[in-house]
Every structure is written in structure tokens, then in C-alpha cells.
Amino acid sequence: MQDLRIKTEMPLGVIRQLRPSDLPKFREHLLRLDVESCRDRFNGPSNEAFVAAYADRAFRAGTTVIGYVEGDEVLGAAELHEIEGEGEPTGEIAFSVEAVLQHRGIGSRLFQRLIWHAHALGYTQLRVTTHPQNQAMKKLASRFNARLRFEGGETVGLIELEPATEIFAPQVMPQPRRLAA
Question: Which residues pair with 43 in a beta bridge?
């Protein structure tokens, strides 16, 4: 089935952390990925059963999932998985954006939000792993100062974050809405 979304220069959705109730929308997003995007996201071929089980596992395992949401659909996602046993607090990050919206800055916006979130959680390192042919991911990781190397047939990037301090705060704090009298 052809996607009839109108392409615009600036996407109209929002970037937000996905709630547990968003799991079905996250799963649907992953299942809608075209073959190439799915291969890029999972570093190789996968099938629907694997992808659906992965989405369920991500929410149960305490993974942070930031989504690009338009209307009622998740169309892009960035994930932060904790890597236990590292000397430094380290997270592994992964990204997916549906093909019709790729190369429009959504991946960069997701990356920025995920780095902010990882910093707020006290991570000092983020690791991204992709297959060597995923030029878009390698370019995106490089834009965020990832040191890339080839390891075990994959491209591995490491992003070092400044340690969290007491004075770290988001640029804009959300304010509660005033209720009408």
C-alpha cells in the first residue's frame, strides 16, 4: 500500500517520550519500516515476529523510547538502553524513522532529545552500532561527535557526555497550563 502523506519541508509532529500506553503505536511504527530501514535499525534482516517481540521487550526492560509523533502515529523513534557492567554509565542508542520522513531533520531532533535525556539520567557514554553500509546513521552519529570505528563487522560509535552536575537544567522548563476560572 502506498503512503499518501504529503511531504513538507518541516515535519509537523512532536518529539516526546513515549509512555507505556504508546507501546502499540511504537510496535506499529517498527512494523511499518520498509525493508532497508528495518535492516538499518536492526543491523540485519528481521521478520514481523522478531520486531513485534522486540517492541514488547523494549518497554518491559525499562528502555527509554523517545518518539516522533504526528497525530496519533509514531513515525520515528530513538531508544536508550542501559548497558550494564561498563566502567562508566553507558547507554546504547538506536534510531528509526519511516522512509517517507527520512532526511528531514527528524533523526537529528530525536538524537538531540535522547542525548539530553541520557545526560539527565547520568550517562557519560552512549554507544551506537550499525552495519557499515548505513551511511545515514554514520553521518548522524558523526554530527554528534561520535568516534566511529569498525569492530566485528559493524560500525561502532562512542559519544562521550559531560558528567551531570547540579546546575544542569533544560533550556526551557515546561510550565503548567492555567485552568480557566
Answer: none
Contact 148, 130 (CB under 8 A): no
Choose the CATH number for 14-160 among 3.90.1150.10, 3.40.50.1980, 3.30.420.40, 3.40.630.30.
3.40.630.30
Q: What is the pLDDT of residue 179?
A: 54
pLDDT of 4 = 45
pLDDT in tens, 8-66: 455 689 999 999 999 999 999 999 999 989 888 888 778 999 999 999 998 888 799 99
Report domain extents, the chain: 14-160
Q: Residues near 65 by Cβ (< 8 Å), separated by ≥ 6? A: 17, 18, 22, 26, 58, 59, 77, 78, 79, 80
CA distances (Å), origin 15, targets 83, 150, 157: 24, 31, 24
